[in-house]
Amino acid sequence: MRIMVLFFMVAISGDVYTQEKGTPEKEKYDFYRKRLKEQFMYYSQNPDEIGSHLPVELIKVDKDGVKTAYWADATWWQGHYIAMLALEYAVFKEQNIPTDSTLQELRWAVATLKRLDRNAESYWNGKDTVNGFFLRDDIPDYRNVDLNVDIIDSDYESKFGDTLTLSNAPSQDQIWACYLGFSLVVKLVDDTELVNDVTELAKNFVSCMQHTDVKGNKSWEIVNPVTGQLIQKSGDIKWLQHGHVLAAEYITNMDFHFGKSDNLWWRTVWNFVKNNCLIAKKGNFTWYGIYCCSVVGNDWGRGADNCYDWIRLQCEKIVDMRPDLNQNIIFPHLPLIAAILHGYDGDNPISASVYESYLSSAPEQGGYRIREGGKVLVSDEPWHSLSLFCPWHLNDYGYFNMLDYMLLYNAYNFVYKMNKPEFEVFSKSSN
Q: Model-level pTM?
């Protein structure tokens, strides 16, 4: 196994990195951060270049050594990338570590989303505009040289020129993850221009889901402004429209109610969905979307009197429902984000040892699921799925980007290790 992992490191980048001294968890973090920029991203330092500053979801290496960089939900990953950087900035600031490099990388990550919005219409042979209708990715074939891979597998390249395609258009699940990143920027980053940028992006992304037809009828659905084609129908979004509004209002401090989203019926529907989303035992992105909107909007359902405790209880229920996922807690980053955004006045925090177990068990060279010698080799649980953000993705073959570890590491340190008065109950649990 050690030989295989080292071979991967050389095959992808030509280098095996020397880690800095420190705790094993910090050494892994530093290694993953460098790996992300040098192997899992075209890190051009120019966010106007297409294909730049978008983390690779998965790097596949087949039995013949052919390397494929794969994207499917690039803006979903981008939201988590922004969240990770905002948390890194906050931790560095608390530790009096220079933040300039992190802040610049964060600006480029946000500017990348702006590029995907600005350039979307020309993908369908229209006139580009900034309106919240965005591309999921813009990775062309020739970026394989920059990424040191043989093949680019992206929605942009595979569907370019197909005016009827839905594959590279926005959907609400892409926006859910962006809420996490945007809200953490607003809360933690003291850069007015950057806060204004994520506020504008949030405003545009939510507005993109609010459609008024030629008769003046209002509905929560995504329509391609160039082709008029329905991208995501109202039936997919309307159940969560009140949650979208709550999240957007936290980020922007603006009223985003549209159509009938604020009437008693749709507020009741949101509460019903929120309280009963675990009826379906199969893990899916709807669970995650409900929790993202709830965390950012500081909204919770039955069984708790604050968002942190409700999210914690829900995640524990999923563990009971889905023992096959082999997780101690599902979505372990979400309770931490709830506490960071809105505080916590309860007395039952998740033990620091739970997070320490996650961090200490992460593989030194990153998570993977590969075929070798007729066998399937998988990194140890809980790092055996594509990501902690989507733990039911258990059959993805390749090397994982480890954004989940980096986000979790920063959130854990900010809450448990910075000795901030508002997190005293968490600090005590780590002693």
A: 0.94
